[in-house]
Structure to design on (128 residues):
């Protein structure tokens, strides 16, 4: 084989591998978990509309899942689940923090720390 033929073969092999790569990527895209778009929390203090997608999407606030799902392993095979799985809706004597308290701590804590989003004004969150 002369050098020209060798180069030609190398080029063809490269092209074939590239096509296989593209086809595999398109055929088996990495599946990511279905996430809520928005969540309406119904509370005795008025409903809270939470834009989950806007908070989590890369093109928007782009926050890490772990910022808000601290108890989650980040294993995409397992959903993070509701906070109520551990934080009771009512106060119990098991010492676990109450659901609405940890949600207030989480939401307002980040807004306050970052100097963005509602903190003091109740009706900025409890809109309905
Ligand atoms: C700014 C906070 C925040 C961020 C960031 C966030 N989440 Fe959530 N997510 C929540 C809250 C609050 C709930 C509602 C939990 C409840 O109702 O008990 C929730 C609910 C969910 C649910 C529904 C519950 C379930 O297990 O089916 C899924 C799925 C979920 N989030 C996935 C994600 C993933 C994946 C990411 C990262 C890409 C993410 N979240 C980022 C706050 C957040
Ligand atoms: C698997 C159980 C589990 C789940 C699910 C869970 N947590 Fe927790 N969380 C804990 C434990 C344990 C603590 C430690 C404090 C305690 O005793 O309650 C804690 C503490 C917290 C704290 C710190 C509170 C403080 O005042 O220091 C926040 C905020 C919090 N959780 C938010 C959430 C939110 C929001 C969700 C749902 C998106 C959630 N957690 C889901 C177990 C869980
Ligand atoms: C880890 C940080 C973080 C957490 C946790 C968080 N937010 Fe936010 N939030 C933001 C940022 C960043 C903005 C954007 C503020 C801006 O651009 O002015 C925002 C804005 C908002 C706004 C006003 C604009 C909009 O998107 O509607 C509301 C309402 C809001 N957040 C509700 C919530 C609620 C409810 C929770 C808890 C379930 C929460 N946030 C938790 C970071 C956070
Ligand atoms: C950053 C958004 C945000 C702000 C600001 C906010 N809240 Fe909330 N509030 C929530 C969320 C989220 C919950 C929990 C919803 C749930 O448990 O499903 C909640 C829950 C509540 C509840 C129900 C508690 C219970 O035990 O059932 C009351 C009452 C309440 N808030 C009052 C207030 C008052 C008063 C203010 C102003 C001082 C305020 N909130 C400010 C987001 C907010």
């Amino acid at each position: 084989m002369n050098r020209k033929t060798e180069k030609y073969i190398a080029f063809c092999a490269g092209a074939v591998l590239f096509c296989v790569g593209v086809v595999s990527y398109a055929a088996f895209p990495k599946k990511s978990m279905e996430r809520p778009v928005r969540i309406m929390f119904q509370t005795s203090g008025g409903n809270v509309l939470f834009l989950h997608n806007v908070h989590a999407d890369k093109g928007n606030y782009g926050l890490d899942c772990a910022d808000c799902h601290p108890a989650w392993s980040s294993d995409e095979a397992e959903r993070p689940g509701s906070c109520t799985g551990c934080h009771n809706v009512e106060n119990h004597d098991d010492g676990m923090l109450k659901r609405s308290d940890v949600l207030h701590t989480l939401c307002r804590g980040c807004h306050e720390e970052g100097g963005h989003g509602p903190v003091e004004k109740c009706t900025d969150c409890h809109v309905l």
Remarks:
- The chain has a mean pLDDT of 85.
- The two ends are 78 Å apart (CA to CA).
- Residues 68-71, 81, 83, 85-87, 95-97, 102-103, 105-106 surround heme C (ligand 2) (CB under 6 Å).
- The CA atoms of residues 41 and 48 lie 5 Å apart.
